[in-house]
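Progress against Task 2.4 (sequence-to-structure conversion) is shown through the following example record, which the project officer requested during the mid-term review.
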Amino acid sequence: MNRHKQHMSLAVAAVFLPLTVACGSAAGDSGAVSDQQPVTGIDWRVDGITAGGTTRHAPATARLRIDEDGRAAGNLGCNRFSARGTVHGDRITIGDLRTTRMACAPARMDFERALARALTTGTLTARTDGAKATLTDGDGDRVHLSRRAPG
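Structure tokens generated for the chain above:
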């Protein structure tokens, strides 16, 4: 248990340092892009997935949040999920998903399986651009995100 706490403390420290540099409040040679915004601590709407050259639009309920403490949670389009995640700069790894087990229309279930696969197949690279973000896996598949409207 103590090792887990140490690992999480290091993960949290790894999140805050790059975010400080990325936001421009500290100088350094970390290679962080000055206009790169953090992806953690934000309620993201999942807009769609591009996999194998095909883009699929997400159901309105699909969302994702990765907190600084390594907790990832959201909705895959039908079922809610939670998982542990690690964030190191622009690299994100999300572990096995724990999900609810509701059944929805086949198209929603297909999208949710594709999103779950995209989020958990390996390390994702995060890129932000204003209110938009993209998570890209090692195969070039992308999860398209946008900031959720408040309220």
